[in-house]
Amino acid sequence: MDIFTFILEIIGTVAFASSGAMLAIEKKMDIFGVNILGATTAVGGGIMRDVILGVTPPTAFAQPVYILFAIITSTLLFAIVYTNPDIIHSKIKNKFYDKVMLWCDTVGLGIFTVVGIQTASRHVTDDNAFFFLFIGVLTGVGGGVIRDIMASETPYILVREVYASASIAGGIVCIVCRSTIGEAAGLVLGLIVTVVIRALAAHFHWNLLRIH
Amino acid sequence: MDIFTFILEIIGTVAFASSGAMLAIEKKMDIFGVNILGATTAVGGGIMRDVILGVTPPTAFAQPVYILFAIITSTLLFAIVYTNPDIIHSKIKNKFYDKVMLWCDTVGLGIFTVVGIQTASRHVTDDNAFFFLFIGVLTGVGGGVIRDIMASETPYILVREVYASASIAGGIVCIVCRSTIGEAAGLVLGLIVTVVIRALAAHFHWNLLRIH
Amino acid sequence: MDIFTFILEIIGTVAFASSGAMLAIEKKMDIFGVNILGATTAVGGGIMRDVILGVTPPTAFAQPVYILFAIITSTLLFAIVYTNPDIIHSKIKNKFYDKVMLWCDTVGLGIFTVVGIQTASRHVTDDNAFFFLFIGVLTGVGGGVIRDIMASETPYILVREVYASASIAGGIVCIVCRSTIGEAAGLVLGLIVTVVIRALAAHFHWNLLRIH
């Protein structure tokens, strides 16, 4: 179980590091800025989660493996775009770049939501569904919020189609499944629900009510 | 006493949630963004306070009642403006909107300043007036700072007339009254001083020294 | 040893307070905004460090001396520029202002990096070099990141020449020297390495790889 969670965390770390690194590349930051924004996006949500849970020092600081994966991912991405600058330049035409950004952010959102709930349940004994949900959503959206604030963008969570709502829906599914079917099912189903809702919303441009 | 503090906290939560939700509506965010910014403004200062005090998990996460009130407030405000969009459009004319925003922010500032001092005194045994004051001001201004940073605005605390100074003055009154007249008097008088100074400063455009 | 660390901390506090206060003056904030940004820059990194280490309440809140020095520094700077506004206006000509800002930020970066490592080693028993380095860099860059985000600037750490890399290099030197030559040598040599690398990078406009 812990190994399964760890594998999910590493995939989420790589996904969020990619979304932070790509945004930094787009903003013409140097290779170090790309690594910093990649790493901050990848571990930011988890650090906020651990501080809120009172887990100090946070896992991301105590175990260098997460930051290591974030740095490898960011540097690799930088190298790829540096040798193939057309990937960026052709972005307006084929939307390939936007798609990659969306998927990295979506996969990270889904994974960190369910991992956040899992971590909360390890450190808090009483079975408070609301609390688990808050922690899950905070972990899921935290890295992206820090990424956007550092890059002077309005946070995704406030302006994108169905973003935190996807994390909340997936979090509820995760919590319900954990206490009925089991932990692993909760992780997988919560993750799938978050990713599917977010991807559908982005593809069909689902918009929630807005005042013009 | 605890019930009185709780009532104050709920009023402050509603006031700060309103200020966050209104800013989100003004920025044309959707109903979910409005709820997120409302809730973040309402509980942000308290979460920072609890993390600083080592109270984990923070009250706002452990007891869903605060976030619940913030969400009800934000959704209600969204519904009111959605059905009466003129409230926003006529704002340039009658300044009604700016007044509401100011009062919500001011009441939240005053309440969270004194509640922050109250909470600090519950968790720290030694009677450190400076520390209580820092925590009070942090709790008072914290939610608004997070709101403004997330909405890509320069924080109120840095640019508005007599803002943190009102919180500091009210905090000092609160601390002095607590150790002389009593806890309840400290809460009420500290709150009144913060609100009156801030409201007078905004009304008369009191400006502090500035270099042009 | 503790007195030597304390003296370093006060110098770093004055340096970072200056960089925050000068940025606030440049942004035409009033005397209170100048003090708030000065104090936040000075103690922000240390508060993040203490929260991450689980040291609550953080030193900056428990001991008012740091915030006191930050406020004295900010108010003094405000008074100097207020009575000599030419210092700001002549900045485009003689670059004097940019130089002062650079040195304040550089000295703060260097001091807080090594002090962060020192503090981490006091609170965490096992000898985890990676962890010490993370905490050192976080403490060194934290105040500046908060300053830039509050002032609506893209954080230095993401866009300036060789910034976090100087902190990392100095941090590594500090950690290696601590376990070989001794604590004091680690502090001094780590500080020198950070400051020299950062100053050389700024002077010669060393740029890291960037994608255009």
Automatic annotation (TrEMBL), chains A, B, C:
Residue ranges of domain Glycine transporter in the record: 7-80, 102-178
Transmembrane segments: 6-25, 32-53, 65-84, 96-117, 129-150, 162-181, 187-209
Any one cellular-component term (Gene Ontology): plasma membrane
Protein topology in the membrane: Multi-pass membrane protein
Major localization class: membrane
Annotated localization: Cell membrane
Keyword field contains Transmembrane: yes
InterPro entries listed in its UniProt record: Gly_transporter (IPR005115)
Keywords attached to this entry: Cell membrane, Membrane, Transmembrane, Transmembrane helix
Entry keyword annotation includes rRNA-binding: no
Family: Belongs to the UPF0126 family.
Name of the featured protein: Glycine transporter domain-containing protein
Species of the source: Blautia hansenii DSM 20583
